Structures are given as structure tokens and as C-alpha cells.
Amino acid sequence: MDINNSVALVTGANRGLGRAFAQRLLERGAQKVYATARRPETVDLPGVEVLPLDITDPASVRAAAEAAPDVSLLINNAGISTGTDLVTGSLDAVRHELETNMFGHLGMSREFAPTLARNGGGAIVNVLSAVSWFGIKGANAYHLSKAAAWAMTNGVRLELAEQGTLVTAVHLGLADTDMAAGWPVDKIAPSDLADAALDGVEAGSAEVLADQWSRDVKSRLPLTPEEFNAAMGRALAALMAS
């Protein structure tokens, strides 16, 4: 699809990657950009149409779909990371990450699928992570939620193919946002991530590996679990030492 003259809705558009998506969409000629957030007053980007949205609340998701009947591009960006492990961490926190990072994206996709169909098919972008493919102590709830979101994205892609909706999974290592502020390593600029994703949509790509880290992790998936874990351990150690 052509980003120029599209009508896009971005979740979590008040900061970080979501704000970068909304800004680049405007700069690339989108006809309209709905910028959504749980606290709409925190959206400070000129030129967008602001909507309140809590992706974990079905009534809020339904209201957003009713308020934006012209959407042709859905950017599922909103997400959380609680720094929780699976065995010793809070089960409520694990559920919260799944409700936001997987079920929240699924709920948006379900609610907006008829809208996209009416508007010619369009596209859905799900912002995932290289952590979709590997566990990391201290963030395994995030790994679980992103792995589940990856599987969900693959399933939704198959189900919406007949109505002509492209479903693009975007994977990255770390972006220079508040969520990654505690990691003293190289990070992709939010605007570069947004451009990579939007370029992928225009090219009709089902998957975008936005940085070298995500490409390296994906390339290791054919390894055995033992080989994969050893390789990831070395890669993480090298990353932290760089």
C-alpha cells in the first residue's frame, strides 16, 4: 500500500516509537493520522487527530473504531515491560504484559479488521521485538508476551489475507526510548524504526527486521536450543561490553 494519502491510527502515540510513527506518517504524506493514548492530553504532536484509547479495554477499543471509520493502516505499537520473570515474578504482572502486548494487539486487529476491509484491505503493523525469539532473565514475561504476539500476528495474517489486508511483523533489538533507557548500548532511532516499518508496508513485506540485532537473532533460530542459548549468551555479553 501507499503511505501517501493513507489514513493511519497509531496506538501509544504520545511518546517513543508511537510518536515517531505518527510524525513520520505525517511527513510521508498520510492524509490523516489518529494518535491514540490512554491519556490523550499527553499527545503533543501537531497535525494529528487525538483519540483516547486503552487497548486492554474492549469498550475503549470499540469506541476508537467507531470514531475512526476511515482507517486504512493500523499501527499496533502500544506495549509495556514490567521486568518480570515467569517462575518467581508476579503472575499478575505476567498476565498484564500478555493482556497488553498480545491480547491488546489482537483486540485492535479484530475490531479494525472490518474497517480495513471496507477501506480496501489496508495493512496492520504489529511492533514486536527480537525478544520474540529468546528468553532473557529479568524480562521473561516480556519474552512470553512478544512470542505470543508473533504467533498471533502469523495467524491473523492468514485469516485476513482473503480481504486483502497486509499484516506486517516488525522486529527490533532496542530503540532509543524510555523503555530502553537503562541499557547503555547502541539503539535504533525511533524515526529510523518507523521508516523501516513503513517502507516494509509499502513493499508488501510480511516481516521487517529493523536492525542488525534482530537479523542476527533470527538467523540463529535453526540452531538447537543448547546452541542457540550459548550463542545468545555470548551475543548479550558482547553487547553489554561494547
Automatic annotation (TrEMBL):
Keywords (A to Z) from UniProt? Oxidoreductase
Its source organism is Streptomyces doebereineriae
Query: What is this protein's name?
Result: SDR family oxidoreductase
Q: Does the keyword Thylakoid apply?
A: no
- Pfam families documented for this protein: adh_short (PF00106)
Listed InterPro entries: NAD(P)-bd_dom_sf, SDR_fam
Q: Lineage, please? A: Bacteria, Bacillati, Actinomycetota, Actinomycetes, Kitasatosporales
The family classification in the record reads: Belongs to the short-chain dehydrogenases/reductases (SDR) family.
- List the Gene3D superfamilies: NAD(P)-binding Rossmann-like Domain
